[in-house]
Specification:
Layout: H1 7-10, E1 14-18, E2 21-24, H2 25-47, H3 56-80, H4 82-87, E3 96-97, E4 103-104, H5 112-130, H6 134-141, H7 145-158, H8 187-206, H9 216-231, H10 250-272
Antiparallel strand pairs: 1-2, 3-4
Helix pairs in contact: 2-3, 2-7, 3-5, 7-8, 8-9, 9-10
Amino acid sequence: MNWWSQIPYKISPYLFQINGFGIRYYSLMYILAFVTFYFLIKFRIRTEKLDININLMDDFIIWAALGVLLGGRFGYVLFYDFKYYILHPLNILLPFDFYNGFAFTGISGMSYHGGLIGVVAAVYFFCKKNKLPFWEFSDLLCPVVPLGYTFGRLGNFFNSELFGKATTLPWGMYFPTDPTHTLRHPSQLYEAFFEGIVLFAVLWTIRRKKAFKRRLFALYLLGYGFIRFFIEFVRKPDDHLNYVWSVFTMGQILCFFMVLTGFFLFIKIKRKN
């Protein structure tokens, strides 16, 4: 047993905790994601002299945060645990359990795909309200977005959640929330690197290329959906869902439609141009 495999046991999910209440690193990861997104967008507007009022981003970050949080939460309810929440609707947005007495439970369960839908809706209505071109505004945002998922997946790692399937590979890890104490793929780190850092590097590199103008959103959908689809093969399925269809998880099915949407948009914009 090497030191690497024991890392999750050495990391507390809390920055601090007092009488059952505390601040989790997962929450801090969300804050870091929004802060990074905000400053990188402003950096792009200033350095690339984009024709967008930089002050609008102060308003948009609120729209984006609401889109991510509400979309992510409702997406989880709809895609991953609808049967439970239809019987316990108060638990969707309230961090308390009213059904077995009264207890603070926190809010757990966020869906990436739900958050994506929420952000797309936020971008659409924000552009409509401020008379901004949707595709050009999307070109501004998309190269920066993947870094947010890097922080999100690190938050999952600190929580010892969403870990991978059993493995014998030397970089496998043991997670304290795994009752079987099995060596597993650190799939959260795979996703943080490939969905976050690698996809960010690709989109950031091509962001100024004329060939990809108005197409970065489509490329983002293709890139993320493709990467996540294959990483899901080594990620442990949700216990209450397991495999939704044959050997495919809910995440893979949603990513499949994500890739189809990206491909459709790419072709449509290319023909329009």
